[in-house]
Specification:
- The protein is of the alpha+beta class and about 750 residues long.
- It has 19 helices and 21 strands.
- The longest helix is centred in the last third of the chain and has 45 residues.
- The two termini are about 30 Å apart.
């Protein structure tokens, strides 16, 4: 039983490590291959309105040391309700996903077909992004309907395309590919948006930003750099892979702690045999090597079991997908290497612990059987006049006389509780609607956007309508400008949102919201790039006018490329306007979906988004994958605790067999003997559960923040635990008690030990 338990422990931790490493390597490799095949841009600038391409050509010609290639892709803006797939309108994603109709890029930034080559469509055909193909189960040969001013055109799906720039669900723009003829036909009736893309010389990103701003080129839309595109593309699978690797590390730590207990217990039990071997001439190295061989056999068996587990686990974490583009062998090799290394680490620990053989004295081991290198003092006698039951006092004495082992067991249970609870809590936090308040977006029922370049007066008309609407409880308006943030370290372009920041507040990482003119709050990445902190000052250059602002707060932001700012005033209102944002709270009883649809009909120039819907359609895929990984972690933690306590209980019962027989002679029943180890297990599991809960609450914000920090996020408080999150820890602790119950199922026979 001990051998089987140890082998399963090693196998589970090794298989988890292999699956996590394989998922991470596969994700990174697939992302890099996609960006290489698509020749993805290093800088992207969206622009709505008139565009002189000659200015871009002149800029590229004047900066050959920065710009390698550039191009302008014209995209037609399509309303979601005008797109139908399988007869179903995409109106549910209205205000969440921006639909763009494009032709294949001429120079780079290609949209790729399943074979990894740029897709090509003929008249009457359309290539759909994989996001929509997954959402609507689209395959080649299906039909897609596009309605423009009541005129419905039907297209046949020719390809499902991968888009390096706009493919991930976190990017709320999606490109559909049409032929030149169909695109030109629709261009007469749909508004146009320009996508300015650049391929840069190596390490020219910062110089490009400064040169582009100085040249005064079109910039009235979102701007994103290549590094952020790569990060977002790898985020979904990357989160799952990182979480799985963290799970494997915790599992390996539990396995090593359990192995330590097992080796030291074995040394104590075998001290007499080791003493005999040392007395007849075996060196401590020969004895250690002989004992180590048994643990090496355990590791070898664990590798075989792990190989049976790692392939289905890896496929499950990758959504059933397998490595593509001929790189499956490399991923498999890395996965197998991770399994072997993870299985070898316990053997290395056993080798280190077995060095204690040299401390065992042959004379002492032969004259005092059962005593290893370090003897322990005789426990104090029990007092029989206390009202506490004897079984409880014996359980407590068993823990206190072996305090080191008890502490290790408590730590193991704590690790397992964290392993089960933390992924659940992180997933629950990301899925919660309040999560956006820590990511650069205030909490409201509805959000409305009016882009620059929309019909004149659209923002003012929407503001008047909201003010007079009896269904509106309150609203706030803000206008975003493209400005230059000037600090001692560098100059960066940021999207500065100007308006009332108190009505729908954010959760600030440091400091507070700006309340007065001349005050400014910056996103985490913007503050880091500028090298400034709360209390310091920066200059803001807007349309040639420079003003000084004092930084009052820093907040996390995953929008606008992670670089943004918030202020209550921009002197003169000068700058490059990007869009107007309206945050709206409805009165009780007003349906959000119906109100958003009603407002959208009255104000076609604006897009309306329900925050719950936004979270569902952008983070939904990530949340589902995290749920799968967290359920695997929960199951692994419970199984591991069952094995650990079953293994530990058997070792403890074997070591204490003489004492247990003596208690039987004194009149204890078999049930009474089982009570003692069960009470120990309950005490250890309870203490471990408390330790794990404290660790989850303290480590959770840091773990989530570390995952989000690279694209503008940071440490974020976990939301209150729901039903599933509340039972994960107790289930793991209960599994530990069940393991102890299994271990003590066999009790010693009544033998005459006198």
């Amino acid at each position: 039983m001990s051998s089987v338990s140890l082998i399963l422990l090693m196998a589970i931790s090794s298989a988890t490590a292999g699956a996590g490493v394989a998922t991470l390597v596969s994700t990174i490799g697939a992302t890099e291959r996609l960006f290489a095949l698509a020749e993805a841009p290093d800088a992207v600038q969206m622009h709505v309105g008139p565009l002189e391409t000659s200015s871009l050509d002149s800029f590229a010609a004047a900066h050959p040391d920065i710009v390698d290639h550039h191009q302008v892709q014209d995209a037609l803006q399509l309303d979601n309700q005008d797109l139908r797939m399988h007869g179903i309108s995409d109106a549910a994603r209205d205000g969440v996903m921006d639909l763009l109709l494009v032709t294949q890029s001429p120079r780079f930034d290609f949209l790729l077909g399943p074979d990894g080559t740029p897709t090509s469509v003929r008249d009457g055909e359309i290539a759909v992004p994989d996001y929509y193909a997954d959402a609507y189960d689209l395959v080649r040969g299906d039909t897609v309907e596009i309605s423009v001013h009541g005129d419905v055109q039907t297209f046949t799906v020719a390809d499902v395309v991968r888009d390096a720039q706009m493919g991930p669900s976190l990017v709320n723009s999606k490109r559909f590919v049409l032929s030149e003829g169909d695109w030109n036909d629709l261009a007469e009736r749909l508004p146009v948006e320009h996508i300015l893309t650049f391929r840069l010389v190596d390490d020219a990103g910062d110089r490009f930003t400064e040169a582009y701003r100085a040249a005064g080129l079109p910039a009235n839309g979102a701007a994103v750099d290549g590094s952020l595109l790569r990060l977002i593309a790898a985020l979904t699978d990357g989160l799952v892979a990182i979480l799985t690797i963290l799970v494997s590390i915790v599992l390996l730590a539990i396995t090593l702690l359990c192995l330590r207990i097992m080796v030291l217990t074995a040394l104590e039990q075998d001290a007499r045999r080791i003493g005999v071997m040392r007395a007849i001439g075996f060196s401590h190295r020969e004895v250690s090597s002989t004992l180590l061989l048994g643990y090496a056999v355990h590791s070898g068996a664990a590798v075989l079991v792990a190989l049976l587990l790692v392939f289905p686990a890896s496929a499950l974490l990758r959504g059933g997908g397998a490595p593509s583009d001929g790189h499956g062998n490399a991923v498999t090799l890395v996965m197998l290497l991770a399994v072997v290394v993870a299985s070898a680490i316990p053997t290395a620990l056993a080798a280190h612990l077995l060095r204690r053989v040299r401390r065992i004295s042959p004379l002492l081991a032969l004259t005092r059987p059962g005593v290893s290198a370090q003897t322990r003092g005789r426990p104090r006698a029990l007092r029989w006049d206390l009202p506490i039951p004897v079984s409880i006092r014996l359980a407590v004495r068993g823990l206190t006389t072996r305090a080191t082992t008890a502490v290790l067991l408590i730590v193991m249970v704590g690790f397992a509780v964290v392993l089960a609870a933390l992924p659940q809590r992180v997933t629950q936090t990301i899925a919660a609607p309040d999560f956006v308040t820590t990511m650069g977006v205030g909490q409201s029922d509805l959000r409305a956007f009016v882009r620059e370049g929309a019909e004149s007066g659209a923002g003012e008309a929407l503001e008047r309508s909201l003010r007079d609407d009896p269904d509106i409880a309150r609203f706030a308006k803000a206008t975003s400008f493209r400005v230059a943030l000037i600090a001692a370290a560098r100059t960066d372009d940021v999207a500065l949102e100007v308006g009332d920041t108190s009505a729908f507040p954010l959760a600030y990482a440091r400091g507070e919201a700006p309340a007065l003119p001349g005050e400014l709050a910056l996103s985490t990445l913007a503050a880091q790039n500028a090298g400034v902190e709360v209390g310091q000052s920066v200059r803001v250059d807007s349309a040639g006018s420079t003003h000084r602002y004092r930084i009052t707060g820093v907040y996390h932001d995953i929008t606008n490329g992670g670089r943004s700012g918030k202020a209550v005033e921009l002197p003169g209102g000068q700058g490059i306007p990007l869009w107007q944002t309206f945050m709206v709270d409805l009165r009780d009883g007003v349906d959000q979906g119906e109100k958003a649809s009603s407002l959208a009909l009255d104000h076609p120039a604006a897009t309306f988004t329900e925050l719950d819907r936004f979270v569902h359609y952008t983070l939904g895929d990530t949340v589902e994958r995290l749920k799968t990984a967290s359920m695997i972690a929960w199951a692994a933690a419970a199984v591991v605790m069952l094995l650990v306590f079953a293994l530990r209980g058997r070792l403890e019962a074997t070591r204490d067999e003489s004492d247990l027989r003596l208690l039987r002679l004194l009149g204890w029943s078999r049930g009474g003997l089982r009570t003692i180890p069960l009470l120990r297990a309950v005490g250890v599991a309870g203490a471990g559960l408390l330790l794990g809960w404290v660790a989850t609450e303290s480590l959770g914000p840091g773990v989530l923040g570390a995952t989000l920090s690279s694209f503008g996020g940071g440490a974020t408080d976990l939301v209150a635990a729901n039903g599933w999150s509340l039972i994960t820890g107790p289930v793991v602790a209960a599994a530990a008690v069940v393991g102890a119950l299994i271990a003590c199922a066999h009790s010693p026979a009544l033998l005459n030990e006198s």
